[in-house]
Amino acid sequence: MIGPAAGRIRVVARSAGHLEAATELVSVGGAFPQAELRLLRSVPIAGTVLHADRRPAAAVPVRAWPEDGDRPVGWGFSGVDGRFTVAGVGAGRYRLVAEARDRSTARATVAPGQTHVTLVLGPRPAGGER
Question: Which residues contact 95 (CB under 8 A, 6 or more apart)?
Answer without folding.
Answer: 64, 65, 66, 67, 107, 108, 109, 110, 130
